Amino acid sequence: MPRGGRFGALAGWAQRHRWAALLIWVAVLVTVTLGSQAAGSAYKNDFALPGTDSQAATDLFTKHGSAQAGDSVDIVLKDSQGIDGCKAVVDKMLAEVKGLPSVADVRSPYTDASAVSKDGTIGYATVTLDAKAEAIPKEDVTAIIDTAKDAETDGLQVEVGGEAVRGAEEKGSPVAELAGIVAALVILGLLFGSLVAASVPLLTALFAVGSALGLIVLASHGFTIADFTPPITMLVGLGVGVDYALLIFYRYRQELTDGADPAQAGRKALDAAGRTVFFAGCTVIIALLGLVALGLGSLQGVALALALTVLTTMAASLVLLPALLALFGKRIQRHVLKNAAKTAAKGRTEGRRWRALASAVQRRPLPSLLVAVLALLALSAPALGMRLGFADAGNDPKTTSSRQAYDLLAEGFGPGFNGPLVVLAQGDEAAGKAVQAELAKTEGVAAASPAMPSEDGALSTVIAYPKTSPQAEGTADLVHHLRDDVAPKVEHDTGVTILVGGATAASQDFADTVSKRLPLFVAVVVGLSSLLLMLVFRSILIPVKAALLNLLSITAALGAMTLVFQHGLFGVQPGPIEAFLPVLIFAIVFGLSMDYEVFLVSRMHEEWERTKDHSLAVREGLASTGKVITAAGAIMIVVFGAFMLSADRMLQQFGLGLAVAILMDALVIRCLMVPVLMQLMGKWAWWLPAPLARRLPEVALERPTGS
Predict the structure, then answer these.
(1) 1: domain CATH number?
(2) Would you call 171 exposed, middle or buried from its count of C-beta atoms within 10 A (0-12, 13-18, 19+)?
(3) Which residues form the signal peptide (predicted)?
């Protein structure tokens, strides 16, 4: 038998030392789990944006000892008889809050007339924290919430709001993850007709994800990793892990059907499909690390965690999966051969429906291509009007205290009260008064507070309340208007420097920064991935086709997200798309799309090398891979789609975006548009200019099944 490659040799080692390989993975999982539990997590949300007005304002607040350097919590009170009647209860509660850890100051509504609504039924106390929300321990915030809520009576409603509160509140259980796992098991069971066969890919994915989660907790002590990373890691790890294991396992079944014994089948499957998985995993990692080009601290940590997850799933597919196949090989072989005999007895051939589909689109390639392109462009169109931002308490479940506090403040003081703009003037009190006077008459500003000096008197701060809600387009326009028009005029008249900061302005800065740096990120990821495809297939047109089709599936996903979450389709509360999700989805989907591209086109290339019949190569390539691509896509869709069950709006958006992208990619693009385009390109699909061919190194992706 011809000698196999390195992946086949790796599979051979795992098969011979199956118990050792399994015990190594069990040991890794147990060690990192216990280690992560002992060390605890050190997640940190770093949304610092050097070079922006909001970050400059925060730095100045910290430097000059302004109370605005720390975040705040609002304790919101409502009494239909008027909050004056419960002053004694509220004063006692506020005194207790002032003595709690992480509390720098408490301002009572009874000492500030502007903190009480005009009808006197709603008021709020401002609890100033001694640091930014992400740096405050959750137990300290929980203590504030519990102390405030203890003051509730039959007539007095007390709610607590603010970013720190949103972070401390539990918004749901892991129902989405569990639903995704169950759905994946059902699809695998239907695909293979055997619980053992269905369990092998899923078990591989669970080992990988469990190990990755522990490693990320440990990595959080050395790197800046955001606290929303673990559920995203679970989401991507499950989808990718099952996907990679399934591609190898499906090839393993084919080898068994062709007469190989379980040991040979395992080596051949790894030597062929294992190469595809390795290439696909490297492509996803490259795409994720491309996020570093954006220079956004919070996303760099997420990219690192996801790259670590993909690396772990890839390792599990190449080492753990062959060991499991060696353990269950005889049982799986009996089941596979029994099913193959039944299929042969009925006169059916593997992939006949996919072969028929390929023949149909080959007869009418242009109409098929036109319908598919128009459908994807129509779904992509809403993405042109996508508005980036961040969810706030107004998007939280109505049962949470942060959401109820948000609604009460909007009811008592107007929609813009929940998204104040912090305008900083680098000057004395006179400069602050000039800024306040100008803001008060600015269109779009509902009210402007008196100027508040810093401890050293070097800064004056004015709080400007927009007329529109924090997520409204009018508020984003107001931020730009203040910076581009109002601030330069006041600076010219007074000679002081003015900065527009605060959480709402910082969200806008983040969205603007992502939008500005997105072209560079796309160019880096597309360029590197296309270069890899050129090396693999020694072709100019295939990488270009792959890049364009991948971009189509991603824009279709972003269009669907815009329709549902920005425009409120299906009754979803309208709001902006989370600012970091488009680049994150782009990185993940672009990498995963290459997975299917390589798996499909490599089989076409294998057939082309064997027969030099291009039409036959297209048909046989789709016939060999259509079923597994559809099954792998279906599993990823249900795993990602299950996150629509989450109470977290960000996870809902992420799940929908990934699910739609994979749906478009697995069904419309890989099973329709790729065969059509490959047919139209003919033999030119494999063309590479001779000078370039001489300079490019040879990279063998898949070995023929007979090797």
Answers:
(1) 1.20.1640.10
(2) middle
(3) none
